[in-house]
Structures are given as structure tokens and as C-alpha cells.
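Worked Example 4.2. Consider the chain below.
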Amino acid sequence: SATNGDTETQIEGIPGDVVYGKYGGNNPTDNSGVLKYVSVRFGGASIGDNNEINGITLGGVGSGTVVENIEIVANQDDGLEIFGGTVNVKNVIVAYQYDDALDFDMNYSGTVDNFYVIFGGSGTDEGLEIDGPEGTTNKDGLFTLKNGTIINGDIFWNDKTSYIVFTANGKKYVNYFQKKGVQQLKAIFKL
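Applying the procedure from the previous section yields the following C-alpha cells:
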């Protein structure tokens, strides 16, 4: 999906005047190839405000594409960010990312099955960032997350409760639980 009724738009991380930075199209079953048994470690970069290089970025990728058995560790931005498209992702691990672990934008409407996230530390943003349609032409697409675990090493404390924060459709959601008198607690959020 793209903005303003277009079928193509520019992907994050590539300058707007570079033609190969465009993504989109009108074939939801497009086959962009196979990405299997891939490990990305210590990658990514910030190249400007709201313009970073993710561990893996998929833009408008169709459901005929195979993306399976992916590991992204210690990336400087998001682990896996998917802009639109219908690609299905199976067996993904994101660990110690600096920003979001899994980020879905521009009306992504595929399935992510069997994912595992280990939070990156105090500078980490969200385990999930789900931004929805964001002005895209297709507002009916729905994505599916299943068989997932998010382990958060950083808990936000106040006097009585702790919480995990995640973002969906531009809103922050909070999962509260009672403080049990321990100073270090590993929280686990399972879908």
C-alpha cells in the first residue's frame, strides 16, 4: 500500500530521488524470492530524522515470497520492519534491538507466525510497533500475529505496579501487573 492513492511510495532509508527505493504494486501474491536461514547481526544505522536502516526491511512484498527462520541481533534500529504487502513470516527472533523489534506499517496484511523478542535494554523502544493503514489506499487489510513471545528486560516501576508498554495504531497500550517486592523482574508478554 502507498499514500495518497498511489500504488508505489518511497521506502525508508533510501533517498527520495533514487528510483530503486520505490516499493508497492497491485499484485498481493507477488513472489519476491526466498529469504531463509538468515542472521543479521550488529547492523542498521540512523541516516537522518525518521530515516533509519533496519535489520530487515520489507516493502510491499507479496504472499508468494518465502521469509522463514530469520534472526536479527543488536540492530541499531528496528529488527524487522514491514511496509505494506502481504508476505508471511515464520520463525523470527529479534534480540537486543535499539528501537522496535517488529514494526508493521502502511497496512501490512500478512501473518507473522512463531516470533520471539528479547528486549534490547533501556534505550529500546517497543517490542511491537503497529501503525496501521497510515493513509494507505487499502484500509481493510488485517495482519495476524500468532505464537509469539516478547521478553522485556526493562520494567517501568512506580510505587505499586509495573508495566510493559507496546504501541498499536499510534496508541500506547500498557500491560500492568503487581509489584512483588523484587527489584529485578523479567516480564514476559505472550500472544
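Residues 153-164, 176-191 have pLDDT under 50 and may be disordered. The two ends are 26 Å apart (CA to CA). Compare this with Example 4.1 before moving on.
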